[in-house]
UniProtKB/TrEMBL annotation:
Any one GO CC term of the record: ATP-binding cassette (ABC) transporter complex
Protein name listed in UniProt: Manganese transport system membrane protein MntC
Keyword terms of this UniProt record: Membrane, Transmembrane, Transmembrane helix, Transport
Main location: membrane
CDD domains per the UniProt record, alphabetical: TM_ABC_iron-siderophores_like (cd06550)
Pfam families referenced in this protein's UniProt entry, alphabetically: ABC-3 (PF00950)
Organism: Paenibacillus wynnii
Spans traversing the lipid bilayer: 12-37, 57-84, 96-116, 136-154, 175-192, 198-215, 222-242, 248-266
SUPFAM superfamilies for the chain: ABC transporter involved in vitamin B12 uptake, BtuC
Length: 278
């Protein structure tokens, strides 16, 4: 115990920042990911996480705010996916695949063409151990904004998530809440680039939410539990990666997967053990 406390006191500043950043990311990803999982939009989340890449590249080229450029491209991707699906016989998963690959390829071309200091590897996989204080502050502010929006619009998001037909009958603008979630998803994705990167951000959005879904049927409880699972995955992943010299972002995801696996086996709602014995 003494050795453990001594190790905690001697943690470098960059590792401490990484731990705080992982907790922030885990909380906001768990809260937002709960709606993504309930709406069966995990594939859409994957598409938007890749679709923001050209927005990131253009933001660097034009010298504009990265959140603005990436969020606009995320929203544009969501609109195009909906447009292709509604105006043709193509299914939504096919539309998502087309937009995902197109936007991702465009982003790679723009980054290569610009020949800037933008590191594609850093964007794809992140580096949470190198996160500066300014980005840590920005991530915290984004977390507060997302949580406030969820609290203020909780009832509307709840109804539109569980029964879009009934929500339309009550006069709720389901399209507005859909694109609001897509905008929030884009913003959270951009804020996570320096931490876990585009490739792993979808894991942070889906895994904690899926884990909490195995334990509860109530949305509010699911959000709380998903945020807790995300935060715990983040801090444990940072500590394990620091202790054993492992890639931090990937370790965070693997810790989350481990928690999901345990929940998959033990949760009464999933009832895996009883089903396996039959």
């Amino acid at each position: 115990m003494i050795d453990f406390l001594s190790a905690l006191l001697n943690i470098p500043v960059y590792a401490l920042n990484a731990g705080i950043s992982a907790i922030i990311l885990g909380i906001v990803s768990g809260a937002l990911g709960s709606f993504i999982v309930l709406r069966k939009m995990s594939l859409m989340g994957d598409a938007l996480s890749h679709a923001v890449l050209p927005g990131v590249a253009l933001s660097y080229i034009l010298g504009i705010n990265i959140l603005l450029g990436a969020s606009l491209f995320g929203l544009l991707a969501a609109i195009l996916i909906q447009f292709i699906t509604s105006r043709s016989n193509i299914k939504s998963d096919t539309s998502i695949g087309i937009i995902l690959s197109s936007f991702f390829a465009l982003g790679i071309v723009l980054i290569t063409y610009a020949k800037s200091g933008l590191d594609l590897t850093h964007i794809l996989f992140g580096n949470i151990l190198a996160i500066p204080q300014s980005e840590l502050t920005r991530s915290f502010m984004i977390m507060i904004v997302v949580i406030v929006i969820i609290i203020l619009l909780y009832k509307e998001l709840l109804i539109s998530s569980f029964d879009p037909i009934v929500s339309k009958a009550y006069g709720l603008r389901t399209g507005f809440y859909h694109y609001l979630l897509m905008m929030l998803l884009s913003v959270v994705t951009v804020s996570s680039l320096s931490q876990v990167g585009i490739v792993l951000v979808i894991a942070m959005l889906v895994i904690p939410a899926a884990t909490s879904y195995l334990w509860t049927n109530k949305l509010s409880h699911m959000i709380y539990l998903a945020s807790a699972v995300g935060a715990l995955s983040g801090i444990v992943g940072v500590f394990v990666s620091f202790r054993f010299n492992l890639p931090t972002s990937a370790t965070i995801v693997l810790v989350g997967v481990s928690m999901f696996s345990i929940s998959f086996i033990l949760s009464p709602k999933n009832n895996f053990l009883r089903k396996g014995l039959k």
